[in-house]
Fold these 4 entries.
Entry 1:
Amino acid sequence: MENRTHTADVAAGETATVAGWVHEIRDLGGIAFLILRDRTGKLQIKFEKDEMDEDLVETGLDVHRESVVTVTGAVEEEPRAPTGLEMVPDSLDVLAGADPELPLDPSGKVDAELPTRLDNRTLDLRKPEVKAIFEIRSEILRSVREYFRSVGSTEINTPKIVATGTEGGTELFPITYFGQEAFMNQSPQLFKQLMVGSGLERVFEIGPIFRAEEHNTPRHLNEATMIDFESAFVDHHEAMDVCEGTLKAAYEGVAENCAEELELLGYDDFAVPEDDFPRLTYEEAIERVNATGELDEQLVWGDDLPTEAEKALGSDVGGHYFITDWPSEIKPFYIQDYDDDPQLSKGFDLMHPRMELVSGGQREHRYDELVAGFEQQGLDPEQFDYYTRMFRYGMPPHAGWAYGVERLVMTMLDLDNIREAVLFPRDRQRLSP
Ligand code: ATP
Ligand code: MG
């Protein structure tokens, strides 16, 4: 629409054409108001029944809520209107009517359960506070991309249909690829590693991952968006520096560019993490968990951190932190072990007090060690020949990591459920829409 003005941009004394949804109709008898809503806000349209064309009044006041209309009229100052402005319509067209019964109420007066909201995401996202989550998500991705570019990283896109998984046959969704078994990729891990040995050296990818995890939790999806980073000639500590920088850049971007959205969501004290994130070794982490006395059973060296341990440690530390130097056993085979202590790996996790956000590490770039790792993991290196072969042609030392975008949004905005941070979640119960 060429001559459309957004409601936020209309000015008193001008004639304008606005377009949007009928948010509400308030009929007070001789006078009635239609509240029109667009993505920038709302505008009050005034109908003075005795002074206006009968057809216009009828069309304007008989239209159902959430219908799409366009209205042209003079904009006037009106201190009693919510925005201090109102429009006196000359014409009103209904572009798309809405049924009188709606599956959920976009004005938010009637609360809907999450499944109803997800079934009707279009209507759900007409609510400003739901829309705000996705504006913030978009800003996070923008700032993250900008940060990656500022540290010399190239954006790549790798295949999502693959012949073999990253860590073997578990947790993969099988598909049929021209009569051959294939899978939806669970991580760009192997592809991004192949790229650090290419002319690109330092890469990032933002894309979907697919995991056939059976569990149904508030922080797992079966399709998620991952932010992956991998760089040649860095060790795990330098990779953690970039990881920390990315996270801070995301918070800064949101603080700078999403003030309105944060206000809508009720964050008047949104804080950008400023201090360096503590880097606890795994050993320090389990000692600290045990010292909280929060767990029924003390952790011993070699245990993975159960959810309760993550929570106890999170509230003890009180902010983002890294856990480094994990036992090799519980980290994937492509993570490098310390030469002087092969029980210990150069893997790390970035934790938010509520949950794990990132896993990463220094990778094994030496061919013989890599192949041995596959075998120790019970995987057939032959199947991964496309990957291991490149380690015979000059693969530099490298490190990297991966975030879940939804977990970043969820922890940043303190959402209860990861499904709030994705438009159309895929989980055990949900394949449509
Ligand atoms: P968790 O132990 O919490 O299930 P993970 O260790 O299996 O996660 P990684 O393979 O380390 O996950 O993936 C890197 C990051 O991707 C995680 O730290 C998390 O932020 C995100 N992620 C992984 N799996 C999921 C999932 N099923 N749903 C949403 N995000 C996920
Ligand atoms: Mg992990």
Note: The mean pLDDT is 95.
Entry 2:
Amino acid sequence: MKSVKDIDVTSKKVFVRVDYNVPVDENLNITDDNRILATLDLISYLVEQNAKIILASHMGRPNGKKDPKFSLAQVGKRLSDLIDKPVLFADDCIGEKVSKTVSQLGNGQILLLENLRFHNEEKENDEVFSKKLADLCDVYVNNAFAVSHRDQASVTGIPKFVQQSAAGFLLEKEVQSYYDSVENPEKPLVAIIGGAKVSGKLAALENMLKFVDKLIIGGAMANTFLKSQGVDTKGSLIEEDLLQTAAGIVNNAKEKGVDLLLPLDLICADKFDKDARVKEVLIDQIPDKWMALDIGPKTALRYARAIEDAKTIVWNGPMGVFEMEKFISGTQTIADAIADSSAFSIVGGGDTGLAAKKCHVADKVSYVSTGGGAFLHLMEGKKLPGVVALE
Ligand code: AMP
């Protein structure tokens, strides 16, 4: 993967695909600017190199229509404050006016384009649209790890029409952290996988068996595994059609000598509700019609101990319904164990990133990925289309 540092960008028009899909409140104020902060090192570098910087991103799901709710104008202002430099804003991402503004950019100047998804052609990876974006620049840089698993115009379309393409610092860091922690890790490598469904992470589970020494399973997906081992999971969320697959993964782990850990006890509830009645039970004692919504304390302790000797930890998926206070404690115990460990620890983005934040460990682990889907894509052993497009 070519790095932006390998390209002479001085006086060149550099199109940088960033991920400024930031959360906003009802008054459109930005509530979390981490995604903007994550791009400052690259932008400062390009300013120092006297490049002409064109930033582009999507935000939300405007469905191909201009919608002030999804405008990047606020992002431009916040970026300008953070970087302490003017940031020009274009009210579209293509068109004559945009081309004119780009042609007038001076060295070291920054222009932010309006939301790429105001055009359906972005998601459709339309060639004409990709070419129009490509025509704005001399060099294309992808710094948006979180969308690099998508085949979209600003991710895989533009590089087809630009002479020089490269990865930005964030994309490099994300891909490197992943390979360092999964494909070339210091051993033992422990993966902790949880979340809602086996189906969403099946390919990742199968691929991880090639690399890990221990595989720890929690969340609703543990229910399907437990049932595949003959446990009556009563009213818990399970995927009937994946029982055989789950049993296959358990056998495969045995054959490979991977220590696969499943819950011994559970926190179960009489309904899926924050005010539900709850009970701590052993796996074979779930009351009729009740459902498991978190791993139990014995399991959490066992999982925490299993992490102790790890040199590398990969965590993807919460251990329970962490959004509700009554079902966060399994996730909290694991999060604390990861934070206390001296291992290199990498946490998947999306829901797991949120869980790490909620458990106050986001700044105590080695790395929290900025991408949920893209991180999972890597865990499945697949190359990211956005990275392939740069090759
Ligand atoms: P994922 O995106 O696959 O990592 O799934 C995350 C979601 O799984 C979170 O919203 C959790 O609330 C949910 N989850 C975790 N454990 C359970 C469980 N035992 N039952 C139902 N949902 C769960």
Note: The pocket of adenosine monophosphate is lined by residues 195-197, 200, 219-220, 237, 292-293, 317-318, 320-321, 323, 350-351 (CB under 6 Å).
Entry 3:
Amino acid sequence: MREFDVIVVGELNADIIMRLDSPPEPGKEVLATDSLITLGSSSAICAVGLARLGLGVKFIGFVGDDDLGRFILRRLHGEGIEVEDVEIAKGEKTGFTVSLVHGGDRALVTEPGVMRKFDLKDEDFPKLSSARHLHISSPFLQESLRTATILREAKVRGLSTSLDPGWDPLDSRWDSLKPAFQHIDILLMNQVELERFSKGKGIGAIELPRRVIVKLGSMGSTGRWDGETVSQPAFPVAPVDTTGAGDSFNAGFLYAFLNGYDVQEAMRFGNACGALSCMALGGTEGFPRLDQVLKFLGK
Ligand code: ADP
């Protein structure tokens, strides 16, 4: 019997989100119409989503030795996530992202902080055995993380695995992640990332993993699942802030997958979580509880 459903190994940072009526220009100042300082990072938003849906979640990562780091730890703990192995890295600074939300889109600036230095130590590999699934997000923001090795160690220990590559800020390291693909059961990404990995050739150009889900924003999601083409439309909503929509989709999809839903149902569940998360400022603020998703889905 494994103690947790999902173990998330990855980056932790904060989000400073501001909604603007007009974009900022050098030398001038604009006032935000709404703002929020909250938990950020792809890994953390997904972990919170999984926990809210009722799964047992453990997080392994670093935060900096500062107020922001302690804020993140409190938030994760408050969501019922096991944080025993989230280390406060001495003398290091917690990363954060400034997100400027304007006209249905957002511009992001990230200070990676200590996430640059995080890796899972060899002696901690056995800790992976405490869960039945491993999820990793944003490997390109975590320069020290041995993504392929950790995924392999999880597979050796009988876990299923998922990865969301996120964006590569250098836009030059896409191929470097390919060795990890053989250890991934489910690859989750958006359309631009698919374009980069496939060099514009589309999903058919990706041999492994056999299960690939592509998030299409207001168009929903599509993918390839054991050779079958799958797709599900989005739910029509008027988004307030799409921060974390992709991570919320991931949480919903993985929840459904781990609970034995078929792939189309899991995509629908992910689309619902993505849509609901767009309805509030912040990555986790709009994330629903299980009964809210079921109600939204008319169940
Ligand atoms: P990412 O944040 O990774 O780029 P997307 O923007 O594709 O991901 O959003 C993830 C999911 O959230 C989508 O697949 C969709 O289900 C939902 N979603 C995102 N934007 C909207 C929107 N404008 N309307 C409805 N659903 C949305």
Note: Helices lie at 42-52, 67-78, 147-156, 191-197, 245-258, 263-277, 290-296.
Entry 4:
Amino acid sequence: MALHAAHHGSKAAQSESASTRLRIGVLISGSGTNLQALIDRARKGSLEADIVCVGSDRASAYGLVRAQEAGITTFVVSYEKYLKGGRIDSVEDAEVAAVDARQRILRDQDHEVRRDRLRRLMAAEQEIAAHLETHGVQVVCLAGFMRLLTPFFLNRFRQGDLPGVVNIHPALLPAFPGQHGYRDTYRYGCKWGGITIHFVDEGEDTGPVIAQAVYPIWDEDACENVQQRGLHLEHLMYAQVVNWIARGQVRLVPRVGGRPRVQIEDPAYREVVGSWVEAAFRHRPEVVHRRT
Ligand code: GRF
């Protein structure tokens, strides 16, 4: 994969074009343990990309502190300002209509209501994208970012044939999409839970799967253990996926009449996936919660 600067590349992106390292931006809303895992890998020299900025929709997100402690530039974009504010003039009607025709996240039947909401989301996304582009971000990694993104944003971060926005989801998609992957997996009574890292498309948790792995759920586990074990796996997986993207080892293979499939061209792929599942199998929670 050729690593081009984002379409609306800034001066920063251009002046960095001599560098071949992938520039990633991480978006968070909360605690940021995935971000921390990426930072830790970067410190060890085993992340093959640079985390150039971290953004959040919540000023209180603890992940922002983690980023600042690591010397990474942060920014906050308040969605409330757009969602609850007055008229938005910064997004053209025609653009809202074009994005509405492609998006699959807003379902309100009332056309006016839906487009007003969409315009507001797009205005917030414009601000986020401007920050990311200022830092020359090429790939956006969502790590607990609790907002759905529209095609307006997604289209600004494409890498040639590859989508440029990646998400980590705490369930084995297409099972348990939405905000409560661990809780839903646990309550269903699953014997295995899973983690999915996928490209983001115009739906919710529907984009092409890049990597998946599973962890066991034991009879005595409380939901908290399940989450701890799953997070342990998330932290192993995200840096590896970033490295695959940075090395150009991720390919999107179109299929006639079907969903595109992601292919990982790493000769060590099977060993890597095996090591994830083994680590999850052996994982013992630090604080053991008993099923009640
Ligand atoms: C993770 O479980 C991730 O899969 C989901 O949100 C959570 C974020 O956790 N998308 P953290 O903020 O990285 O600790």
Note: Residues 28, 30-34, 63, 143-144, 168-170, 234 surround 5-O-phosphono-beta-D-ribofuranosylamine (CB under 6 Å).
